[in-house]
């Protein structure tokens, strides 16, 4: 491929507003172009990388019996009304109407679409299990699109759905998908962690994320420094190590505490440690059910754990007006004593004695509050955000945090969607039963960013050979020099014949510009044809290490496979 015939608009300077390394380098390297906030065009180089990624995915999906197909991105809203998600998905859902007023959405995910397909086409258990998948654009109206392809309004995703008659088949498919995903990311030489994930709005039970550690990762990977425990921060747990102090409960006393709406101010006013205070947070579940959540003052409530415990589609912080109506005070003085709402308390609260809590009266708190005596808890559980340094759940080692990029997620959906949409089949006894589903997604365009975050340096991108847009970059230093150009053309022809994908820089540019662009583009091997061309000698540079070696033309055929093998083994 002649570089003069390709669209590769490289940039000398870092683009304004780009913060993430992957975003900067893909813009500078001429891989992507911003069309609008959160919406990007994949230019020729990026498209070639995407094709390589898709091939790796397709190969592994074929091995486990998954069949590729394609469904529309423009979907009738009535499908989402059937599942109940039209009203619960949130403001990220793109909604529109056609000229006749019929409601549609742009698909952010396709559980409903595939479930309806099975409902309409599969009637017997004999046609199951079945695994279908697609690679397609998805749409989410992100409030703050950022970091290039990491958080956009339009993105490429591989989503697969399994349909089976029993849990045994679902377990087998889930396991096979887990193994396939690991192989996919290994082939891309991507550093990743399989972690416990949250099913969230997808409605999953068993849930596992694959997260790629990166500085700009918006997720937090929580892992044990001794053991194999790994989880998303939303789902991370730790061992409760609290013990009840051997002290007698004191008399409950209401105390004036003006202007102490925060734990910090209250602790200072009463001259106590934050861990001696009960933090009370009022939520509204499913838009109408109040629930008061209690954690220790030095801990934070984990809304995801609360939502999952309640099985709620929505969980919102109560507004000041709702707090006033329900407990009679302003925010900052809410507490569990004499409160007529459901109370959930973190396990650490169970072991607190003579603590402090809001009195549900402006400027007043209770001191010497004791759970069980002064208020009743409807349920205890792990309702706090895990903290770095906590004891790991198995009691061995401590929790560590690192940022990460979510690149994939697999769920066991069960019958969540098949029941709502009526996707049933006749079983062995002739009885109609709902199909059991699983969902398995990979953020395809996100993989571009994840790989770029991990495989870039100050000079540009450094693509692994499995997904690089080209295998070899040939650069004749002076295209006007017939000897250099003829040798470059000869190498291009021979290497292409040998099965390599070659980019030949035939532009009439200075050598320094060509070398800088080559580093930005990040092709694994570069062959420079320069002053030694008369002797049939070229310089081979390994982009990843910067190592250069002079090689005779007739030795390249044996040398290049050695370099590529070394690169393929270097993760």
Helix content: 25-40%
CATH superfamily of the largest domain: Bira Bifunctional Protein, Domain 2
The CATH top-level class label of the largest domain:
Alpha Beta
Q: SS-based structural class?
A: alpha+beta
Beta content = 25-35%
Rg (CA only) = 29 Å
Number of domains: 3
Tally of helical runs: 13
Q: Which of globular, elongated, flat, extended, rod-shaped describes the shape?
A: globular
Span of the ends, CA to CA: 28 Å
The low-pLDDT segments are none
- The total beta strand count reads 31
CATH topology group of the largest domain? BirA Bifunctional Protein, domain 2
Average residue-wise pLDDT: 95
Largest sheet: 9 strands, mixed
What is the CATH architecture descriptor of the largest domain? Answer: 2-Layer Sandwich
Organism: Acetilactobacillus jinshanensis
Catalytic activity: tRNA(Pro) + L-proline + ATP = L-prolyl-tRNA(Pro) + AMP + diphosphate
Subcellular location: Cytoplasm
EC number: 6.1.1.15
Descriptive overview:
Belongs to the class-II aminoacyl-tRNA synthetase family. ProS type 1 subfamily. It holds the Pfam family tRNA_edit. The protein is α+β, with helices and mostly antiparallel strands and 571 residues long. It folds into 3 domains: 55-214 and 405-453, Bira Bifunctional Protein, Domain 2 (BirA Bifunctional Protein, domain 2, 2-Layer Sandwich); 253-381, YbaK protein (Alpha-Beta Complex), CATH 3.90.960.10; 470-568, Rossmann fold (3-Layer(aba) Sandwich). 26% of the residues lie in helices and 29% in strands. It is built from 13 helices and 31 strands. Strands 3, 7, 8, 9, 10, 11, 12, 21 and 24 form a 9-stranded mixed beta sheet that branches. Helix 1 packs across helix 10 (444-454) and helix 2 crosses helix 10 (444-454). The longest helix is centred in the first third of the chain and has 21 residues, at 167-187. The protein starts with 20 loop residues before the first helix and ends with a helix.
């Amino acid at each position: 491929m002649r570089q003069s015939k390709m669209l590769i608009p490289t940039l000398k300077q870092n683009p304004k507003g780009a913060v993430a390394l992957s975003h900067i380098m893909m813009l500078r390297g001429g891989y992507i172009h911003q069309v609008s906030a959160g919406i990007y065009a994949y230019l020729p180089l990026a498209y070639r990388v995407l094709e390589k990624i898709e091939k790796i995915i397709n190969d592994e999906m074929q091995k486990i019996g998954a069949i590729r197909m394609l469904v529309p991105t423009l979907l009738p809203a009535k499908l989402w009304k059937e599942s109940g998600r039209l009203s619960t998905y949130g403001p990220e859902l793109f909604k529109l109407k056609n000229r006749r007023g019929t409601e549609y959405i742009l698909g952010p995910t396709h559980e409903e679409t595939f479930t309806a397909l099975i409902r309409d086409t599969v009637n017997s258990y004999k046609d199951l299990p079945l695994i279908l998948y697609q690679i397609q654009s998805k749409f989410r109206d992100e409030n703050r699109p950022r970091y290039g392809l990491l958080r956009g309004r339009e993105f490429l995703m591989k989503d697969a759905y399994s349909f089976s008659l029993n849990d045994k088949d679902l377990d087998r498919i889930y396991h096979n998908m887990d193994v396939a995903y690991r192989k996919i990311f290994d082939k891309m030489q991507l550093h990743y962690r399989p972690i416990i994930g949250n099913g969230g709005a997808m409605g999953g039970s068993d849930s596992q994320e694959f997260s790629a550690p990166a500085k700009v990762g918006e997720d937090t990977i929580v892992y044990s420094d001794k053991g194999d425990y790994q989880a998303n921060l939303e789902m991370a747990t730790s061992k409760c190590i609290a013990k009840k102090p051997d002290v007698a409960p004191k008399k409950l006393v209401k105390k004036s505490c003006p202007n102490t709406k925060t734990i910090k101010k209250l602790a200072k006013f009463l001259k106590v440690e934050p861990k001696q205070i009960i933090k009370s947070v009022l939520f509204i579940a499913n838009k109408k059910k109040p629930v008061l959540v209690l954690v220790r003052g030095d801990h934070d409530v984990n809304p995801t754990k609360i939502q999952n415990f309640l099985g709620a589609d929505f969980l919102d912080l109560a507004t000041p007006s709702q707090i006033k109506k329900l407990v009679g005070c302003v925010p900052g003085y809410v507490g569990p004593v004499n409160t007529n709402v459901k109370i959930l308390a973190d396990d650490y609260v169970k072991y607190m004695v003579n603590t402090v809590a809001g009195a549900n009266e402006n400027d007043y708190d209770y001191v010497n509050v004791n759970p069980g005596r002064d208020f009743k808890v409807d349920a205890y559980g792990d309702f706090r955000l895990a903290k770095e340094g906590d004891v790991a759940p198995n009691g061995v080692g401590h929790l560590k945090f690192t940022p990460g990029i979510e690149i994939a997620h697999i769920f066991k959906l069960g019958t969540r969607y098949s029941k709502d949409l009526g996707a049933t089949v006749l079983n062995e006894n002739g009885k109609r039963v709902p199909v059991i589903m699983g969902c398995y997604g990979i953020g395809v365009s996100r993989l571009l960013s994840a790989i770029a975050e991990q495989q870039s340096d100050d000079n540009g991108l450094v693509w692994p050979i499995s997904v690089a847009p080209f295998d070899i970059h040939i650069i004749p230093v002076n295209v006007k020099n017939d000897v250099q150009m003829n040798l470059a053309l000869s190498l291009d022809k021979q290497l292409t014949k040998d099965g390599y994908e070659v980019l030949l820089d035939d532009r009439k540019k200075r050598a320094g510009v060509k070398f800088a662009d080559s580093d930005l583009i990040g092709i694994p091997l570069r062959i420079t044809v320069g002053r030694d061309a008369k002797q049939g000698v070229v310089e081979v540079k390994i982009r990843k290490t910067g190592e250069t070696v002079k090689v005779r033309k007739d030795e390249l055929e044996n040398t290049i496979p050695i370099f590529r093998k070394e690169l393929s083994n270097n993760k």
